[in-house]
Queue: 2 jobs
Job 1
Amino acid sequence: MGTLAENIRNIRNTLPPGVKLIAVSKYKSSATILEAYHCGQRIFGENKVQELAAKAPELPADIEWHFIGHLQTNKVRQLIPHVDVIQSVDSLKLLKEINKEAQKAEKIVQCLLQFHIAGEVTKFGLNPVEARALLESAEYQEMQNVAVRGVMGMATFTDNIPQVDQEFATLQRIFTMLKTDYFAMDETFRELSMGMSDDYPIALKHGSTMVRIGTAIFGGR
Ligand SMILES: *Cc1c(COP(=O)(O)O)cnc(C)c1O
Protein backbone atom coordinates (compact mmCIF):
# COMPACT_ATOMS: atom_id res chain seq x y z
CA MET A 1 0.00 0.00 0.00
CA GLY A 2 1.19 3.48 -0.79
CA THR A 3 -0.10 6.76 0.56
CA LEU A 4 -3.71 7.70 -0.07
CA ALA A 5 -2.62 9.98 -2.91
CA GLU A 6 -0.51 7.25 -4.51
CA ASN A 7 -3.26 4.66 -4.22
CA ILE A 8 -5.79 6.93 -5.89
CA ARG A 9 -3.36 7.89 -8.64
CA ASN A 10 -2.30 4.30 -9.29
CA ILE A 11 -5.88 3.08 -9.57
CA ARG A 12 -6.89 5.99 -11.79
CA ASN A 13 -4.00 5.17 -14.11
CA THR A 14 -5.41 1.69 -14.68
CA LEU A 15 -8.94 2.87 -15.50
CA PRO A 16 -9.94 3.37 -19.13
CA PRO A 17 -11.19 6.88 -19.97
CA GLY A 18 -14.77 7.44 -18.84
CA VAL A 19 -14.75 4.84 -16.07
CA LYS A 20 -15.72 6.42 -12.76
CA LEU A 21 -13.92 5.66 -9.53
CA ILE A 22 -16.22 5.43 -6.52
CA ALA A 23 -14.09 5.68 -3.38
CA VAL A 24 -15.83 3.46 -0.84
CA SER A 25 -15.35 5.36 2.41
CA LYS A 26 -17.39 3.21 4.80
CA TYR A 27 -15.88 3.14 8.31
CA LYS A 28 -13.52 5.99 7.33
CA SER A 29 -13.58 9.33 9.10
CA SER A 30 -14.59 12.60 7.50
CA ALA A 31 -10.97 13.73 7.90
CA THR A 32 -9.78 10.79 5.80
CA ILE A 33 -12.45 11.45 3.19
CA LEU A 34 -11.34 15.08 3.05
CA GLU A 35 -7.78 13.94 2.44
CA ALA A 36 -8.97 11.90 -0.55
CA TYR A 37 -11.00 14.93 -1.69
CA HIS A 38 -7.82 16.99 -1.69
CA CYS A 39 -6.30 14.34 -3.98
CA GLY A 40 -9.04 15.21 -6.47
CA GLN A 41 -11.48 12.43 -5.57
CA ARG A 42 -15.09 13.64 -5.81
CA ILE A 43 -17.26 10.50 -5.74
CA PHE A 44 -17.66 8.55 -2.51
CA GLY A 45 -19.70 5.47 -1.66
CA GLU A 46 -21.21 4.52 1.71
CA ASN A 47 -23.22 1.47 2.72
CA LYS A 48 -24.93 2.69 5.91
CA VAL A 49 -27.56 5.44 5.88
CA GLN A 50 -26.54 6.75 9.29
CA GLU A 51 -22.90 7.07 8.26
CA LEU A 52 -23.62 8.83 4.99
CA ALA A 53 -26.09 11.20 6.66
CA ALA A 54 -23.54 12.07 9.34
CA LYS A 55 -20.58 12.64 7.03
CA ALA A 56 -22.15 14.39 4.03
CA PRO A 57 -23.11 17.63 5.85
CA GLU A 58 -19.59 18.12 7.22
CA LEU A 59 -17.84 17.61 3.87
CA PRO A 60 -17.63 19.74 0.70
CA ALA A 61 -20.92 20.16 -1.14
CA ASP A 62 -19.48 19.17 -4.52
CA ILE A 63 -18.94 15.58 -3.39
CA GLU A 64 -21.18 13.13 -5.24
CA TRP A 65 -22.50 10.58 -2.72
CA HIS A 66 -23.42 7.08 -3.81
CA PHE A 67 -25.33 4.73 -1.55
CA ILE A 68 -24.16 1.15 -2.15
CA GLY A 69 -25.52 -0.84 0.80
CA HIS A 70 -28.74 -2.71 1.40
CA LEU A 71 -31.44 -0.08 1.84
CA GLN A 72 -34.53 -0.53 3.96
CA THR A 73 -37.59 1.51 3.03
CA ASN A 74 -37.80 3.02 6.51
CA LYS A 75 -34.34 4.58 6.05
CA VAL A 76 -35.02 6.21 2.69
CA ARG A 77 -36.29 9.49 4.12
CA GLN A 78 -33.10 10.04 6.11
CA LEU A 79 -30.92 9.27 3.08
CA ILE A 80 -32.58 11.36 0.37
CA PRO A 81 -31.34 14.85 1.34
CA HIS A 82 -27.71 13.71 1.12
CA VAL A 83 -27.54 11.21 -1.70
CA ASP A 84 -26.97 11.63 -5.45
CA VAL A 85 -27.03 8.04 -6.64
CA ILE A 86 -28.61 4.98 -5.01
CA GLN A 87 -26.86 1.94 -6.51
CA SER A 88 -28.72 -0.71 -4.55
CA VAL A 89 -32.33 -0.66 -5.74
CA ASP A 90 -33.54 -4.23 -5.38
CA SER A 91 -37.35 -3.95 -5.40
CA LEU A 92 -40.24 -1.94 -6.81
CA LYS A 93 -41.33 -1.20 -3.25
CA LEU A 94 -37.99 0.43 -2.51
CA LEU A 95 -37.98 2.41 -5.74
CA LYS A 96 -41.50 3.67 -4.93
CA GLU A 97 -40.35 4.89 -1.55
CA ILE A 98 -37.30 6.61 -3.08
CA ASN A 99 -39.54 8.30 -5.63
CA LYS A 100 -41.96 9.45 -2.93
CA GLU A 101 -39.29 10.94 -0.69
CA ALA A 102 -37.40 12.47 -3.62
CA GLN A 103 -40.60 14.16 -4.70
CA LYS A 104 -41.06 15.67 -1.23
CA ALA A 105 -37.46 16.88 -1.33
CA GLU A 106 -37.98 18.25 -4.86
CA LYS A 107 -35.05 16.34 -6.31
CA ILE A 108 -34.40 13.62 -8.83
CA VAL A 109 -32.41 10.70 -7.48
CA GLN A 110 -30.36 8.63 -9.88
CA CYS A 111 -30.68 4.90 -9.30
CA LEU A 112 -29.06 1.67 -10.38
CA LEU A 113 -30.84 -1.67 -10.26
CA GLN A 114 -28.87 -4.14 -8.18
CA PHE A 115 -28.67 -7.69 -9.51
CA HIS A 116 -27.89 -10.88 -7.65
CA ILE A 117 -25.04 -12.38 -9.69
CA ALA A 118 -23.02 -14.10 -6.94
CA GLY A 119 -23.22 -17.68 -5.81
CA GLU A 120 -23.68 -16.53 -2.21
CA VAL A 121 -27.30 -16.46 -1.07
CA THR A 122 -26.51 -13.73 1.44
CA LYS A 123 -26.15 -11.09 -1.24
CA PHE A 124 -29.09 -8.94 -2.30
CA GLY A 125 -30.41 -8.12 -5.71
CA LEU A 126 -32.97 -8.61 -8.43
CA ASN A 127 -33.05 -11.32 -11.06
CA PRO A 128 -33.90 -10.47 -14.68
CA VAL A 129 -37.52 -11.57 -14.37
CA GLU A 130 -38.06 -9.30 -11.37
CA ALA A 131 -36.33 -6.42 -13.13
CA ARG A 132 -38.56 -6.76 -16.16
CA ALA A 133 -41.66 -6.79 -13.97
CA LEU A 134 -40.42 -3.64 -12.22
CA LEU A 135 -39.68 -1.77 -15.46
CA GLU A 136 -42.98 -2.82 -17.03
CA SER A 137 -45.10 -1.84 -14.03
CA ALA A 138 -47.45 1.12 -14.35
CA GLU A 139 -46.15 2.37 -11.02
CA TYR A 140 -42.58 2.60 -12.31
CA GLN A 141 -43.68 4.31 -15.50
CA GLU A 142 -45.39 7.04 -13.51
CA MET A 143 -42.38 7.86 -11.34
CA GLN A 144 -41.09 11.39 -11.87
CA ASN A 145 -38.36 11.68 -9.25
CA VAL A 146 -36.12 8.71 -9.94
CA ALA A 147 -33.88 8.21 -12.96
CA VAL A 148 -32.68 4.67 -13.62
CA ARG A 149 -29.15 4.94 -15.01
CA GLY A 150 -27.98 1.34 -15.13
CA VAL A 151 -27.18 -1.74 -13.10
CA MET A 152 -24.96 -2.79 -10.21
CA GLY A 153 -23.72 -6.12 -8.91
CA MET A 154 -21.22 -7.83 -6.64
CA ALA A 155 -19.36 -10.97 -7.61
CA THR A 156 -18.79 -13.84 -5.23
CA PHE A 157 -15.99 -13.30 -2.71
CA THR A 158 -13.62 -15.99 -4.00
CA ASP A 159 -10.20 -16.66 -5.52
CA ASN A 160 -11.90 -18.54 -8.33
CA ILE A 161 -11.24 -16.11 -11.17
CA PRO A 162 -13.25 -17.97 -13.86
CA GLN A 163 -16.28 -17.82 -11.56
CA VAL A 164 -15.93 -14.06 -10.99
CA ASP A 165 -15.35 -13.61 -14.72
CA GLN A 166 -18.56 -15.48 -15.46
CA GLU A 167 -20.57 -13.46 -12.93
CA PHE A 168 -19.44 -10.15 -14.39
CA ALA A 169 -20.20 -11.47 -17.89
CA THR A 170 -23.72 -12.27 -16.64
CA LEU A 171 -24.22 -8.71 -15.36
CA GLN A 172 -22.95 -7.31 -18.66
CA ARG A 173 -25.51 -9.45 -20.51
CA ILE A 174 -28.29 -8.26 -18.20
CA PHE A 175 -27.26 -4.66 -18.79
CA THR A 176 -27.30 -5.13 -22.57
CA MET A 177 -30.65 -6.88 -22.45
CA LEU A 178 -32.30 -4.10 -20.40
CA LYS A 179 -30.67 -1.45 -22.57
CA THR A 180 -32.04 -3.06 -25.71
CA ASP A 181 -35.51 -3.83 -24.39
CA TYR A 182 -36.28 -0.77 -22.24
CA PHE A 183 -33.72 2.01 -22.71
CA ALA A 184 -32.67 1.86 -26.36
CA MET A 185 -33.64 5.52 -26.84
CA ASP A 186 -32.29 6.69 -23.49
CA GLU A 187 -28.58 7.43 -23.57
CA THR A 188 -28.52 8.18 -19.84
CA PHE A 189 -29.02 4.47 -19.14
CA ARG A 190 -25.36 3.57 -19.43
CA GLU A 191 -23.86 2.59 -16.07
CA LEU A 192 -22.51 -0.85 -15.31
CA SER A 193 -21.29 -0.65 -11.70
CA MET A 194 -19.11 -3.64 -10.94
CA GLY A 195 -15.65 -4.30 -9.58
CA MET A 196 -14.12 -3.85 -6.11
CA SER A 197 -10.52 -3.78 -4.84
CA ASP A 198 -9.79 -7.43 -5.57
CA ASP A 199 -11.74 -7.96 -8.77
CA TYR A 200 -12.05 -4.67 -10.63
CA PRO A 201 -9.57 -5.57 -13.42
CA ILE A 202 -11.88 -8.47 -14.31
CA ALA A 203 -14.93 -6.18 -14.19
CA LEU A 204 -13.24 -3.73 -16.57
CA LYS A 205 -12.86 -6.51 -19.15
CA HIS A 206 -16.64 -6.84 -19.10
CA GLY A 207 -17.37 -3.18 -19.68
CA SER A 208 -17.63 -1.81 -16.14
CA THR A 209 -18.24 1.96 -16.13
CA MET A 210 -18.03 2.39 -12.34
CA VAL A 211 -15.65 0.64 -9.99
CA ARG A 212 -16.34 0.78 -6.24
CA ILE A 213 -13.04 0.62 -4.40
CA GLY A 214 -12.42 0.83 -0.66
CA THR A 215 -9.53 -1.24 0.67
CA ALA A 216 -7.15 -0.57 -2.23
CA ILE A 217 -7.52 3.18 -1.58
CA PHE A 218 -7.88 3.47 2.18
CA GLY A 219 -6.26 0.26 3.39
CA GLY A 220 -7.88 -2.40 5.53
CA ARG A 221 -10.31 -1.67 8.32
C1 LIG B 1 -17.33 -2.36 0.75
C2 LIG B 1 -17.92 -2.38 -0.62
C3 LIG B 1 -17.11 -2.16 -1.74
C4 LIG B 1 -15.62 -1.94 -1.66
O1 LIG B 1 -14.97 -3.11 -1.28
P1 LIG B 1 -13.35 -3.21 -1.23
O2 LIG B 1 -13.08 -4.65 -1.31
O3 LIG B 1 -12.96 -2.60 0.09
O4 LIG B 1 -12.82 -2.44 -2.37
C5 LIG B 1 -17.73 -2.14 -2.98
N1 LIG B 1 -19.06 -2.34 -3.13
C6 LIG B 1 -19.86 -2.56 -2.06
C7 LIG B 1 -21.33 -2.76 -2.30
C8 LIG B 1 -19.32 -2.59 -0.77
O5 LIG B 1 -20.12 -2.81 0.28
Job 2
Amino acid sequence: MMASDQPGATERLRDVCDRISAAAALARRHADEIALVAVSKTVDAAAIVPLIAAGQRRFGENRVQEAAAKWPTLKARFPDVELHMVGQLQSNKAAEAVALFDVIHSLDRPSLVAALVKAMAETGRQVPCFIQVNLAEETQKGGCPVDGIADLIRFAQASGITLAGLMTVPPATLEPAPYFALLAKLAADHGLRDIPNGISGGLSMGMSADFETAVMLGATHVRVGSALFGGRT
Ligand SMILES: *Cc1c(COP(=O)(O)O)cnc(C)c1O
Protein backbone atom coordinates (compact mmCIF):
# COMPACT_ATOMS: atom_id res chain seq x y z
CA MET A 1 0.00 0.00 0.00
CA MET A 2 1.32 3.46 -0.87
CA ALA A 3 1.97 5.88 1.95
CA SER A 4 -0.63 8.30 0.58
CA ASP A 5 -3.41 5.72 0.82
CA GLN A 6 -5.96 6.17 3.53
CA PRO A 7 -4.71 3.53 5.96
CA GLY A 8 -7.19 0.76 6.44
CA ALA A 9 -10.11 2.21 4.46
CA THR A 10 -10.62 -0.92 2.41
CA GLU A 11 -10.06 -3.15 5.44
CA ARG A 12 -12.66 -1.21 7.38
CA LEU A 13 -15.09 -1.50 4.48
CA ARG A 14 -14.58 -5.25 4.37
CA ASP A 15 -15.05 -5.49 8.12
CA VAL A 16 -18.33 -3.53 8.06
CA CYS A 17 -19.63 -5.62 5.15
CA ASP A 18 -18.67 -8.83 6.97
CA ARG A 19 -20.50 -7.66 10.09
CA ILE A 20 -23.60 -6.80 8.03
CA SER A 21 -23.49 -10.27 6.46
CA ALA A 22 -23.10 -11.96 9.84
CA ALA A 23 -26.01 -10.02 11.35
CA ALA A 24 -28.15 -10.77 8.29
CA ALA A 25 -27.33 -14.48 8.50
CA LEU A 26 -28.27 -14.54 12.17
CA ALA A 27 -31.63 -12.96 11.28
CA ARG A 28 -32.11 -15.37 8.36
CA ARG A 29 -31.93 -12.48 5.89
CA HIS A 30 -29.92 -12.14 2.69
CA ALA A 31 -27.05 -9.66 2.98
CA ASP A 32 -28.00 -8.18 -0.39
CA GLU A 33 -31.27 -6.92 1.12
CA ILE A 34 -29.19 -4.40 3.08
CA ALA A 35 -27.69 -1.31 1.47
CA LEU A 36 -24.61 0.17 3.12
CA VAL A 37 -24.65 3.97 2.93
CA ALA A 38 -21.12 5.19 3.70
CA VAL A 39 -21.63 8.51 5.51
CA SER A 40 -18.73 10.67 4.35
CA LYS A 41 -19.62 13.95 6.10
CA THR A 42 -16.45 15.85 7.13
CA VAL A 43 -14.37 13.38 5.07
CA ASP A 44 -12.48 14.88 2.13
CA ALA A 45 -12.49 13.50 -1.41
CA ALA A 46 -9.02 11.99 -1.08
CA ALA A 47 -10.25 9.75 1.73
CA ILE A 48 -13.45 8.83 -0.11
CA VAL A 49 -11.80 7.65 -3.33
CA PRO A 50 -10.19 4.50 -1.79
CA LEU A 51 -13.65 3.30 -0.74
CA ILE A 52 -15.03 3.87 -4.23
CA ALA A 53 -12.01 2.02 -5.62
CA ALA A 54 -12.81 -0.84 -3.26
CA GLY A 55 -16.32 -1.09 -4.71
CA GLN A 56 -18.47 1.03 -2.38
CA ARG A 57 -21.06 2.95 -4.39
CA ARG A 58 -23.56 4.47 -1.92
CA PHE A 59 -22.48 7.50 0.05
CA GLY A 60 -24.29 9.78 2.48
CA GLU A 61 -23.86 13.44 3.41
CA ASN A 62 -25.71 15.51 5.98
CA ARG A 63 -25.17 19.02 4.60
CA VAL A 64 -26.11 20.23 1.13
CA GLN A 65 -23.31 22.79 1.03
CA GLU A 66 -20.58 20.29 1.90
CA ALA A 67 -21.94 17.74 -0.57
CA ALA A 68 -22.11 20.38 -3.32
CA ALA A 69 -18.44 21.17 -2.75
CA LYS A 70 -17.23 17.56 -2.86
CA TRP A 71 -19.49 15.41 -4.98
CA PRO A 72 -19.95 16.93 -8.46
CA THR A 73 -16.25 16.24 -9.18
CA LEU A 74 -16.41 12.75 -7.67
CA LYS A 75 -19.61 11.93 -9.52
CA ALA A 76 -18.04 13.03 -12.79
CA ARG A 77 -15.23 10.55 -12.16
CA PHE A 78 -17.49 7.80 -10.81
CA PRO A 79 -20.91 8.21 -12.47
CA ASP A 80 -22.46 5.14 -10.84
CA VAL A 81 -22.07 6.52 -7.31
CA GLU A 82 -25.41 7.02 -5.52
CA LEU A 83 -25.59 9.99 -3.16
CA HIS A 84 -27.90 9.97 -0.13
CA MET A 85 -28.97 13.03 1.88
CA VAL A 86 -29.16 11.93 5.53
CA GLY A 87 -29.24 15.28 7.36
CA GLN A 88 -31.93 17.82 8.10
CA LEU A 89 -32.99 19.61 4.93
CA GLN A 90 -34.08 23.25 4.80
CA SER A 91 -36.78 23.99 2.25
CA ASN A 92 -34.67 26.70 0.64
CA LYS A 93 -32.04 24.04 -0.14
CA ALA A 94 -34.55 21.67 -1.75
CA ALA A 95 -33.67 22.57 -5.34
CA GLU A 96 -29.96 22.10 -4.75
CA ALA A 97 -30.61 18.83 -2.90
CA VAL A 98 -32.78 17.43 -5.70
CA ALA A 99 -30.09 18.28 -8.25
CA LEU A 100 -27.34 16.63 -6.19
CA PHE A 101 -28.81 13.66 -4.33
CA ASP A 102 -30.28 10.38 -5.55
CA VAL A 103 -32.15 9.54 -2.34
CA ILE A 104 -33.33 11.76 0.55
CA HIS A 105 -33.63 10.21 4.03
CA SER A 106 -34.95 13.26 5.87
CA LEU A 107 -38.40 14.19 4.56
CA ASP A 108 -40.17 15.23 7.76
CA ARG A 109 -42.79 17.94 7.11
CA PRO A 110 -45.41 19.07 4.59
CA SER A 111 -43.59 22.30 3.68
CA LEU A 112 -40.57 20.22 2.62
CA VAL A 113 -42.83 17.96 0.51
CA ALA A 114 -44.02 21.06 -1.32
CA ALA A 115 -40.49 22.39 -1.85
CA LEU A 116 -39.23 19.02 -3.09
CA VAL A 117 -42.15 18.51 -5.46
CA LYS A 118 -41.51 21.94 -6.98
CA ALA A 119 -37.79 21.20 -7.34
CA MET A 120 -38.45 17.78 -8.87
CA ALA A 121 -40.90 19.25 -11.37
CA GLU A 122 -38.36 21.90 -12.38
CA THR A 123 -35.47 19.48 -12.81
CA GLY A 124 -37.41 16.48 -14.08
CA ARG A 125 -35.63 14.36 -11.45
CA GLN A 126 -37.66 12.00 -9.26
CA VAL A 127 -35.74 11.54 -6.01
CA PRO A 128 -37.12 8.82 -3.69
CA CYS A 129 -37.58 9.97 -0.09
CA PHE A 130 -37.61 8.25 3.28
CA ILE A 131 -39.87 9.85 5.85
CA GLN A 132 -37.74 10.58 8.91
CA VAL A 133 -39.50 9.83 12.18
CA ASN A 134 -38.55 11.43 15.49
CA LEU A 135 -39.59 8.47 17.65
CA ALA A 136 -38.63 9.93 21.01
CA GLU A 137 -39.85 13.41 20.00
CA GLU A 138 -36.49 14.96 20.83
CA THR A 139 -36.85 18.71 20.30
CA GLN A 140 -33.35 19.30 18.88
CA LYS A 141 -33.77 16.62 16.20
CA GLY A 142 -35.43 16.56 12.80
CA GLY A 143 -38.14 14.08 12.04
CA CYS A 144 -41.90 13.85 11.95
CA PRO A 145 -43.64 12.99 15.24
CA VAL A 146 -45.24 9.54 15.29
CA ASP A 147 -48.71 11.11 15.32
CA GLY A 148 -47.92 12.96 12.09
CA ILE A 149 -46.74 10.00 9.99
CA ALA A 150 -50.10 9.05 8.46
CA ASP A 151 -50.87 12.58 7.25
CA LEU A 152 -47.35 13.12 5.93
CA ILE A 153 -47.42 9.83 3.99
CA ARG A 154 -50.80 10.75 2.49
CA PHE A 155 -49.67 14.24 1.54
CA ALA A 156 -46.36 13.03 0.06
CA GLN A 157 -48.09 10.36 -2.01
CA ALA A 158 -50.83 12.71 -3.19
CA SER A 159 -48.09 15.15 -4.24
CA GLY A 160 -46.35 12.50 -6.33
CA ILE A 161 -43.31 11.83 -4.13
CA THR A 162 -41.83 8.35 -4.44
CA LEU A 163 -41.64 7.06 -0.90
CA ALA A 164 -38.71 4.79 -0.03
CA GLY A 165 -39.80 3.96 3.53
CA LEU A 166 -39.09 5.27 7.02
CA MET A 167 -35.86 6.52 8.59
CA THR A 168 -34.91 7.21 12.18
CA VAL A 169 -32.03 8.22 14.44
CA PRO A 170 -32.75 6.88 17.94
CA PRO A 171 -31.83 8.85 21.08
CA ALA A 172 -28.04 8.73 21.41
CA THR A 173 -27.93 7.60 25.02
CA LEU A 174 -30.60 4.90 25.01
CA GLU A 175 -30.69 1.27 23.89
CA PRO A 176 -31.56 1.53 20.17
CA ALA A 177 -33.26 -1.85 19.63
CA PRO A 178 -36.75 -0.81 20.83
CA TYR A 179 -36.65 2.18 18.47
CA PHE A 180 -35.61 0.04 15.50
CA ALA A 181 -38.40 -2.43 16.28
CA LEU A 182 -40.88 0.44 16.57
CA LEU A 183 -39.84 1.91 13.21
CA ALA A 184 -40.40 -1.49 11.56
CA LYS A 185 -43.82 -1.76 13.20
CA LEU A 186 -44.80 1.75 12.07
CA ALA A 187 -43.76 0.98 8.48
CA ALA A 188 -45.97 -2.11 8.55
CA ASP A 189 -48.85 -0.29 10.30
CA HIS A 190 -48.80 2.44 7.67
CA GLY A 191 -48.76 0.02 4.76
CA LEU A 192 -45.30 1.04 3.59
CA ARG A 193 -44.63 -2.45 2.32
CA ASP A 194 -47.25 -2.05 -0.42
CA ILE A 195 -47.78 1.52 -1.54
CA PRO A 196 -48.76 2.85 -4.97
CA ASN A 197 -45.82 5.23 -5.38
CA GLY A 198 -43.39 3.27 -3.24
CA ILE A 199 -40.21 1.68 -4.51
CA SER A 200 -39.85 -0.51 -1.44
CA GLY A 201 -40.77 -0.72 2.18
CA GLY A 202 -37.39 0.56 3.24
CA LEU A 203 -36.13 1.01 6.77
CA SER A 204 -33.18 3.40 7.06
CA MET A 205 -31.79 2.77 10.52
CA GLY A 206 -28.51 1.84 12.19
CA MET A 207 -25.21 3.74 12.43
CA SER A 208 -21.64 2.73 13.39
CA ALA A 209 -22.53 1.85 16.97
CA ASP A 210 -25.63 -0.19 16.26
CA PHE A 211 -25.95 -1.25 12.60
CA GLU A 212 -25.87 -4.97 13.39
CA THR A 213 -28.83 -4.59 15.75
CA ALA A 214 -30.63 -2.61 13.05
CA VAL A 215 -29.97 -5.32 10.45
CA MET A 216 -31.38 -7.95 12.79
CA LEU A 217 -34.50 -5.81 13.21
CA GLY A 218 -35.11 -5.32 9.50
CA ALA A 219 -32.98 -2.38 8.29
CA THR A 220 -32.73 -2.10 4.50
CA HIS A 221 -30.33 0.86 4.66
CA VAL A 222 -27.64 1.29 7.32
CA ARG A 223 -25.89 4.66 7.48
CA VAL A 224 -22.31 4.09 8.63
CA GLY A 225 -19.70 6.84 9.02
CA SER A 226 -17.01 6.54 11.68
CA ALA A 227 -16.69 2.74 11.45
CA LEU A 228 -15.56 3.27 7.84
CA PHE A 229 -13.69 6.57 7.96
CA GLY A 230 -12.47 6.77 11.55
CA GLY A 231 -13.65 9.21 14.20
CA ARG A 232 -14.76 12.71 13.22
CA THR A 233 -13.25 15.75 14.90
C1 LIG B 1 -23.36 11.07 10.92
C2 LIG B 1 -24.60 10.31 10.64
C3 LIG B 1 -24.55 8.92 10.49
C4 LIG B 1 -23.29 8.10 10.66
O1 LIG B 1 -22.89 8.13 12.00
P1 LIG B 1 -21.68 7.21 12.53
O2 LIG B 1 -21.96 7.08 13.98
O3 LIG B 1 -20.43 7.96 12.23
O4 LIG B 1 -21.75 5.93 11.81
C5 LIG B 1 -25.76 8.28 10.20
N1 LIG B 1 -26.92 8.95 10.06
C6 LIG B 1 -26.98 10.29 10.19
C7 LIG B 1 -28.30 10.97 10.04
C8 LIG B 1 -25.83 11.01 10.50
O5 LIG B 1 -25.91 12.34 10.65
